[in-house]
Amino acid sequence: MERARKPDAVYLPNGRRIGGTRAWARELIRAVPNIVKLLGRLAADDRVPPGSKRLAAFVGAYLVSPIDIVPDFIPFIGQTDDLFIAAYALHHLINTAGEAVVREHWDGADEVLDVLLDLVGVVAGLVPRPVRAALRKLGRAQIFKR
Predict the structure, then answer these.
(1) Does residue 17 share a domain with residue 64?
(2) Of 8, 11, 100, 135, which one is least surrounded by beta carbons within 10 A?
(3) Strands (DSSP E) along 26-126, which ranges?
(4) Does residue 26 sit in the same domain as residue 55?
C-alpha cells in the first residue's frame, strides 16, 4: 500500500520526496549560482539558437530595468510579473537548447535540475498567450541582431 503524500512536499518523477516547501525552496535558492552558470554557458553555446539568446538577453535587461509592465506597487501581481517572464524566457531557452545540452552544462544535482525544469515549465505555462507571442517576436526582432 502506498503512503499518503504530504501536500507541502515536492515529489520527483521517480517518486522520491524532497522535504516540505521550505526544503525545496532552500534547494532552489542554493541552485542560483548553478542557474547563473547554466545561463552563461547556454549563451556561449553555438547549439543554442540566436533568437533564444536574444530573448534571454532582453528579459535579463527587463529584469534589471526600473521600468515594469506591471508596476511593483500593485500588490502581488506587481512583484510576480518579473518571475513569470523570467520563467518563460528560461523555459524557452532550455527547450530550444535541448535537454541534453542543458544537462551537459549543469553543475548541480540532477534532482535539483529536474525540479527546476518542472517548476519553470509550470510557471512559464501561466504566462498569458499574448505575452508569450510578444516575447517570441522580441526574440526574432531585427533590432537585436548584429
Answers:
(1) no
(2) 100
(3) none
(4) no
Q: How many domains does the chain divide into? A: 2
**Residue type (1 letter), 84:** F
CB pairs under 8 A, 24+ apart, for 10-16?
10/115, 12/111, 12/114, 12/115, 13/114, 16/111
pLDDT mean over 127-131: 84
Contact 47, 97 (CB under 8 A): yes
Q: 33 by DSSP, 3-state: which?
A: helix
Predicted TM-score (pTM) of the model is: 0.70
In sequence order, the 6+-apart residues with CB closer than 8 A to the CB of 24 are: 10, 18, 115
Question: pLDDT at position 146, please?
Answer: 45
Q: Where are the beta strands (DSSP E) in the chain?
A: 10-11, 17-18
Cβ–Cβ < 8 Å for 45, 101: yes
Cell numbers linked to 35: 542557474
- Select from 124, 109, 92 the least CA-distant residue to 34: 109
